[in-house]
Every structure is written in structure tokens, then in C-alpha cells.
Amino acid sequence: MSVHQSSNIKRITTHILQEMKLRGEKISMLTAYDFSMAGIIDAAGIDIILVGDSASNVMAGYETTLPITLDQMIYHATSVVRAVKRAFVVVDIPFGSYQGNSSEALRSAIRIMKESGAHAIKVEGGAEIKESVTRILSAGVPVMGHLGLTPQSIYKFGTYTVRAREEAEAKKLLEDAKLLEECGCFAIVLEKIPASLAKLVAESVQIPVIGIGAGPDVDGQVLVVHDMLGITQEFKPRFLRQYADLRSIMTKAVQDYIDDVKAKDFPKDSESY
């Protein structure tokens, strides 16, 4: 594990994340959706685990994040929380569970916190979801914002291309970031926006800003763990650095197992009772 200043912390909290920003220590964040993967990531020393609605893609095989339900997100979150001893666990509230009704947003957030034991929730959007964010925060639930490319709005945007290149959208994104901070969000994720804009946002708010495809000048980085480990091979955006090729390793292991079974080489006497 890399040596860093927070390595001896027993449990990451929103307060510790704020301190990390203040002293310039970068925040590391990865997704996880199950007990086994979460345990590996947590033991490695990750700061934040995001139980992302990207589970809809990598775990269930859907084209978008929209189909995953609140019950399914709670299931994934509960599995992750059982494995985690140190990391701060954030859970996406899925599409349709908070956007149109602040009362429903509050109920969704409370269900996630009570039933999974997670530490915070994440929502996509700015001014248009202010009422929902405020209501969730009023109940004492920590909220992480998400601006830029917001996958739950994919049919509105019609594309996964970089957001906020134009001046008007960039201005709104900066205003939304400041609004989320004013509402009381403890952090913001910026997805797939120009690095210069991400740097400006990180310098303009006091809360941690975590990027995915948002350049190096933010307070931390997040990736989908299946992409980073090379388990998924089809998705290779510019911002993704693949740290392993587990798909090839796993494929060979399965093929070796098949060969051994077919050749009657497994199990041997030493592997029998």
C-alpha cells in the first residue's frame, strides 16, 4: 500500500476528507458492489468506496444506469458495508428516487442509511434538485453532489461526450458547485469536464472535489473498479488508466481449469478425501 498521511486512520469521515483537502492530500475513491471486492479495496487503503449506480452496467449488464432500483442499490450497499472497516462508503440514490419529489428523496436516503449502514449518499444535479438535497441534509444525512456528465440524464444529453465546454454550461456548473456547497454537501464529483474548469471549481469551493475525467487539479480521483482492473474491456475512455488485465488472467485460469478437468488431471489424490 502506498504510504500516505491518512494510512493510520481507523475510519475515514467527512471531517477527515475535509482535512485532506486543506493539507493538499489527494483523496482516492473507487466503486465496489459486493462483499469480496469491497474487502480487497478497503484493506488496500482506499479512502472512499462508492456503491455506484454503475452496478446497473457492470453487475447487471444494462446499457445505462437508469434501470437499477432503490432496493437493488440497498442490496449492493449492504454487501459492501459488511466488508468495510476503514473506508467512507457513499451510495448513489438511483434514477427516479429523488429528482421530482423532495419527500421521496428523503425517504430514499433514509432507507439507504438505515438498511445498508452506509455513511452518505450521492445525487446528480445542481439547482434543479436543490430542494431534495436540502431536505436530505436536514435529516442529518451527508450528501455528495455530482456535476458535469451525469449518467442518469443520458437521454437528456443524448451523448457521453465531455460536458461544459461552452461558456454558458461552464458558468452554470460553477454556480451549481457553489450552490451544493452552500446547501451543505460535504463533497462533489465532477465527471468528464475540461480540466481547466475542474481546477477552477476545486479552487472556488471549500469542500473536496473528486474528478473522473476532470484532470489532475482536483482534490481526488474516482474510477469504476471493473474498468481500472481490466475486468471490463469494452469501455476504454481517455480518462481511464487500466492498472491490471484481470480479464485475461481470469480467462486463462478458467481455461486451465477446464483443461485439467477434461484431461482428468483434477482432482489429484492429494486433492481428494
UniProtKB/TrEMBL annotation:
Cofactor descriptive note: Binds 1 Mg(2+) ion per subunit.
KW Transferase (keyword) present: yes
Group of enzyme by EC: transferase
Residues the record lists as binding Mg(2+): D53, D92, E124
PANTHER family in the record: 3-METHYL-2-OXOBUTANOATE HYDROXYMETHYLTRANSFERASE
Family indicated by similarity: Belongs to the PanB family.
Protein name, entry field: 3-methyl-2-oxobutanoate hydroxymethyltransferase
Higher taxonomy: Bacteria, Pseudomonadati, Bacteroidota, Cytophagia, Cytophagales
CDD domains from the UniProt entry: KPHMT-like
One Pfam family named in its UniProt record: Pantoate_transf
EC number(s) per entry: 2.1.2.11
